[in-house]
Structures are given as C-alpha cells and as structure tokens.
Amino acid sequence: MASSLSTMKFPKGYSFRFLSSKLVELQPTSRCRRNCIALRRSYTFSINISRNFSQCHSRNSLPNKDQIPSLRDFIPKATQTVPASDVQPEPMTISDVMPRGRIYHETYGCQMNINDMEIVLSIMKNAGYTESVDVPESAEIIFINTCAIRDNAEHKVWQRLNYFWFLKRHWKSNVAIGRSQSAHPPKVVVLGCMAERLKDKILDSDKMVDVVCGPDAYRDLPRLLEEVDYGQKGINTLLSLEETYADINPVRISKNSISAFVSVMRGCNNMCSFCIVPFTRGRERSRPVESIVKEVAELWKEGVKEVTLLGQNVNSYNDTSGIENTVEPAVSWELSDGFSSMCKVKHVGLRFADLLDRLAIEFPEMRFRYTSPHPKDFPDDLLYVMRDRYNICKSIHLPAQSGSSAVLERMRRGYTRKAYLDLVKKIRDIIPDMGISSDFICGFCGETEEDHKDTLTLVKAVGYDMAYMFAYSMREKTHAHRNYVDDVPEDVKQRRLTELIETFRGSTGQFYDAKIGTVQLVLVEGPNKRAPDTELIGKSDRGHRVSFANLPILDKVDNNGKRNPKIGDYVEVHVTKSSRASLFGEALAITKLSSFYNTLHEETVAFASRT
C-alpha cells in the first residue's frame, strides 16, 4: 500500500494518513489550511483580507481597491509546484477549498438554552456547517451549552469537558483504536451562561477549550472558530443591550416534535440577590411582535401544535419597536398589586398580554404556554387575556422562592408573603381552574427554622401542581455573594429540602384526583414509555400527563369514521384514574382545539340557562 502511494502525485501542501489497510485520507497541511482561509477571506473582499496581507500595510491605513489582491495572488501559495497546465478551469467553491466540520452539541439548563442551541445551529448552517452528528467521537466541532444557575450544573459541564479534552489530546490513538472517527482533533466550544461567568478559568484549563462564546455573541462563532486555525483562543463574552436574534430562524433540534420553544425576550433586570442571570444574560430586551408572529407561523406550517414562549422574565416583555407611533408618553408600567420593582421602565410598548392576545387570535388551533415569569408582572389585563382565550393554557409558573417575608426581602424579590398569597387568590378568582407551579430555594443566607416553616405552610396554602425545589448554592458576582454569608450548613439545607419535597407531594395529589370523571383535551405526544405498544400519552391544558389506550376512536376532524390517534392529535379523554402525579383515562374522540372549547362553551351556556 505504501509503495503504491509513493508513485502517486499529490499537490504540495497536502499529506495523507491511513484510515485502514485500504483507505487513505488526503489532508491539507496546517500551512495549506491557513492559505485556504486567507483565500476564502479575500474571496469575500473583507477589509481584513488575511493576516499575511494585513502585515504588509500600516494599521492606520486601509488598502484601496487596486491594492486588494485577486484570487490569482493566492493560488501560488496553495499550489506552488503545480504547473499552470494542470490547473482546472472550473471555478472553485468554498466547500471545495475547505470542507466544514461536523457538529456535536450538548445543552444543560433551562429551555432558554435549548432555544439558544437552535439559534447557534442556524448561524453555523448559514456559515456552511451543515452536518450534525449524534456522538462527540465523530465530530470536528463540539458545542457544550452551559448553565451557571446552580453548582451541580457546572460540575456536570466540567466532567464533560474533561472527556472532550481526552478526545482532543489523544485524538491519534483514539482514531487508531476506533474510538474516534473525526477527521482532525475536535475544537471544543463552550457556550452560554457558564462561558460568561468563568471564561478565564475555562480558557486556562490546560488547553481544554478552544472557543468561549457568551449568550449575546453567537453570531461571531464562525469567526472565532477560524481564529483557532491560527493557533489562538477564540473568545467573545460581550453582553448586548440590543441582541435578540429576531432575524435568525432556529434549526429545530427535535425535527418531528409537535411542540417548540420560541424566545420572545432576553435578559433580566430584577437583580434578585441569589441570581446570576443578570450578569450572564444582561439587561432585558424584547423582540418585535411581528418577528415572533412570523416565527410561529413557520412552526405552524411545519406541524407544530404547541408553542412555549421563553424569556428570563417572559412576562416583562415590552416591544418598544413602534413606540413613537403607538404609545402615549404618559403610560406607566403596571405591576401586580402589592409588588415593587428595583428597575423602572422608561418606555412602555406592547406588553406580554398584547403579544399573547395576538398569537391566540392568529393561530386558533395552536396551544400557547410560557415560562419563566416573575410574580410582579401579572397585571389584570394579562389574567383576563388568559381567561378569555381558550388556546392559552390555564397554567402559570409563579416562582415564590420562599414563604418568609424576611427571606424574600433579603432575596430582593419585591413582595411579601401576603402579596404573593393575594396574587394567587386573584388568579384563581379570575380563572378558577388555573394550575400553578413554582420554584423554591432551601437554606438561603440567614434562613431560620421559622422561615423554613413559613415556606412549608405557603406550599400547603397555595397547592401547587408542580414545583422545582433546590438547596441554595452561592454564586459569585451576585448581591448575596457580596453582602451575605452562606451560613446555613449543608446538612440542614438537605434536611429542609427533604421536608419541602414531602410537603409538596402531600398537597399536589388533590389536583390530580379532582380531574377524575372530567373530560380533558389531550395533545398526543407519543407512546407511553411504560406501555409503548398499547398506550399513548400527552398533556392536558393544565399540563397534567394523561395516558390512554391506543385504540381506534371517532374522528371528528375528517369525519372518516374511526382511527387510531397519532402524534399531534387533540384527543378528548374521559379521566378514570389518578396516580396523584399523572392521569389515566378512556379516549373518546379525535377533535380540533377550537371545536372542543366551542362545544364546552355551548354546554356551559345551556346548563346555565336551565338553572
């Protein structure tokens, strides 16, 4: 094999390596790759044409048009020994010059990070990186999208970075034994909140990472990756007051999913003392309503039936793009009754209630959810829109964090225990069947046993469908880190967390049991993992998991008799059992979202007239 290769002619600047006894890969050398990059830059006539060319000019002067080199000026550098007669006349495309690498990606943290990863994939696709792989061993580029909210999330990221470093540092031996199938050692890219918070530590970690890119700098990723080819680290963690990626059409990670996330705003102005988000995500800014409507319309064409609107503080949405024409200067920002905010809103545009109302009207057969809101931004207008639009799900995430007014004050939440309970009462007065979920932190700085008991009694008083509960972990840069002492011992935090979880479980079951005997509209998501051959599962309007037997039922949509429900169908389900964490029932019919609620409304009116 080697002797036969010695008789073959390869262009100078290229080398070959054995992939197997019969397979050889032709690779450009590092010098050739650098020249190819320069060629690509000159081809687009960028001002910064290439590093070699820029060295020939003063930093204080720019080349005029006549000084810009043509494609011919670079060809001898890449093919110095190839005779002119051997050069093919066909035009050379960028993909011919330098094939793009395959991408592998992992995401940790919230739904916002999932949506961010879809934005990143879209940016990379537009730059020519069109292929993704399912395992890091086959990738030339590895993206890891990180979360900095809690310590556990960061530990997981460091563990994965250690493995990616192993794939990179021992690439040759990994290829030799078949562990890796990438064409060259992978470039490791850290994205997201942890990238901004720990950028210096990450880059200093024994050449573990090649690129660090913050949440507002994803458009810069193709350039940062090119910097790595010059032997440099790529870093951009600048925060923006304007970036919303409104013009980016995300590449959906779950291609056949009937649900999707749509980011409507970014950043947070609340400055809660425990939270790192304002320092990693920056200040609040909202996308224009029209760009959101356009994205949702595209999702509807793709078959998506449920959209979750995302934002770090989603219900503080404020579209001021048309403020000079549509909003009176005297309009003030209305908060929930009894709530305050450290940040004053200077200009009031279209608010979250306006956005929800517009989407609900324009897409009557699509469900809408949203997360994560702040309790301070639930004015009456928002609650009335949720009540009046059947396709806005009757489920609100209402993060309490603590049931103690003293702890809430140290957290800088802007409300008391009483104000929170009053808001819960108002929500359920306006929308009686509203499901409520929450967030809780155990063992925040200075929390006493009495404070902890206040949280337990709040959970019992409200009654939550679902809750995220965590032991407090101090984050650098936060107000708490600068001003408080993390003085609750870890064992006490864990004991309080256990008690909180037990209290939650003891109170949540009643809301599932109350659904027995009712008919719920369920959006089918797929087979039930516990019985994949015989059962389907989906979510009700309130967010409860509902499973049912996969049998032929009446099809009210096409009036074609009976058929088995499929993913994306809305199915009427008569609930017969509750596990106090999920529901089971009998499927009655396949229907449309609007038809179900129109019928429900007609039956309610008829019943009221009889009584």
TrEMBL record:
Cofactor(s) demanded: [4Fe-4S] cluster
SMART domains tied to this protein: Elp3
InterPro entries: Elp3/MiaA/NifB-like_rSAM, Methylthiotransferase, Methylthiotransferase_CS, Methylthiotransferase_N, Methylthiotransferase_N_sf, MiaB_methiolase, rSAM, rSAM_horseshoe
Gene3D superfamilies found in the cross-reference section: Methylthiotransferase, N-terminal domain, tm_1862 like domain
Domain called MTTase N-terminal: residue spans: 101-230
SUPFAM superfamilies per UniProt: Radical SAM enzymes (SSF102114)
Alphabetized UniProt keyword annotations: 4Fe-4S, Iron, Iron-sulfur, Metal-binding, S-adenosyl-L-methionine
Family matches, as NCBIfam families: MiaB/RimO family radical SAM methylthiotransferase (TIGR00089)
Protein name: CDK5 regulatory subunit-associated protein 1
